[in-house]
Amino acid sequence: MKEVYIDAGITQNRALVINDGRVTDLIIENNDNYNITGNIYFGRVENIVPALNAAFINIGTSKNAILDLNECLDNKNIKRGQGILVQVVREGVKEKGPKVTTNISIPGKTVVLLPFEKGIFISNKIEKTSKTEELKKEVKIMLRNEFGVILRTEAFHESTEMIENEIEELRNFWNKIKNNIQFIKPPLMIFNSKDFYSYVLREIIKSDVERIYVNRHDVCEYIKQEISGKKTEKVDKTKSVIYDINIFDKIEKTIMNSLNDKITLTSGGFLVIDETEACVVIDVNSGNYICGSNIDETILKTNIEAIDEIYNAVTLRNYSGIIIIDFINMMDEKHKEKVLEEIKMRFKEDKIKNDIYGFTSLGLLEMSRAKKGQSLAGFIYKKTDRQRLTTAYILKLIENECVKRSKFYNIREFNIEISPETYEEFLSKYQFFIQGMKDNYDINVIVKKSNVVRNYRIASLDTKKDFVKVEFEDKRIFGEIIDFSFNSDADEIIFKIKSNNKLTKTLDL
């Protein structure tokens, strides 16, 4: 069974995909700093450098974007100061700005619209059969020879009615973009491909998802409406959208487990992962598994088993750049070829472009992976200190903890203490957090600076009040203790607890 967990937050949103008990996807986006790959901007040409055969485009980011004129659809007529519609194909790295193209593509759930192309293309992940050719003929009629499209995997799980409706939506959206840029001044973002909820609905909630858990009522209703509005006879997931405030811990545990430096294999072997500035190194170890008469076969089996865990680690942590894998040493060249074949097959499933180059003379496997957004660790830890958490992540943890305490103990006001460094960033970027807590949960928070706190500390404002969670057999009560007595003769404890703004009956335990 495939399930999606959506943890909507004020400073950070997260989504988790679990398929038959195994984590297959983990998406995190900060609300102040998101991945801009795929975004469409109406930019302004700031400079043209013939020696580089490139133009520098102001799209409103800190660094001007780079447009390769060889990839520009109208490179002969491009002029300094003009407005130009571009799409980000690669994020900026260090001192380099993002790379952009004028060859726009607009993603949908079943198709990708190509406004400047003609023809129907098939995703590389789809096996070409008579069914694909039949669908291409039907889609060709829908396009009216106006655009091109890429048929995505999901197109083969949806009705032609759903595909036609989406093509019409994308057509209208593109026409709206063309009309709007006539009246706006660049630079301006036109399309945010990573809008969190749109992205989850388009890329994560596929036809094979059976249940969707959401932590907030408003987001739960939004997801229901979006799915209900696009359901077809083949797909009806509306009933599977479930409000559940208790998903915080599940996602938090998954994040922490995904960042472990050591991953244990079923066989008893293990991986050790080291992320450095230059590259990511993954070391495969046999542990106590190397035994038996045929050691070479045992080593091969362990290395092949490790490939699944390597794939999960690389994709869940969103590693990019150079990745070096030190498999257990194999003497047989055929075994090396087998491992190379297996890892290439596994990484064909990766949504992000990667290249696997093979084994070096030292027996290390080299591969690289394109950069697309931050790594998982980048959302959680400060770059300079793995003991210190990022401000967005700290505020997300505070949000979750305050919501849980408010629900269980009926507390509506909290004192928050954070480190001086975090407090400075809070003042400059995240003051909206206070109003967000009030608007979304009716919770008041007071944020203070503390020199003795490394990350954060939470306390209720009224420290004289005592709160308790009592569970006994089928009875459970959370709230403020109004009265308490102990009868030693009867071996009895009596609580009077105020829960949900109502005085409960006396609970005898």
TrEMBL record:
It comes from the Bacteria. GO terms for molecular function: hydrolase activity; metal ion binding; RNA binding; RNA nuclease activity. One of its GO terms (biological process) is rRNA processing. One of its GO terms (cellular component) is cytoplasm. Residues 38-105 form the S1 motif domain. Keywords: Hydrolase, Magnesium, Metal-binding, RNA-binding. The keyword Hydrolase applies. Its cofactor is Mg(2+). The keyword Signal does not apply. NCBIfam families: RNaseEG. This is S1 motif domain-containing protein. It comes from Fervidicella metallireducens AeB.
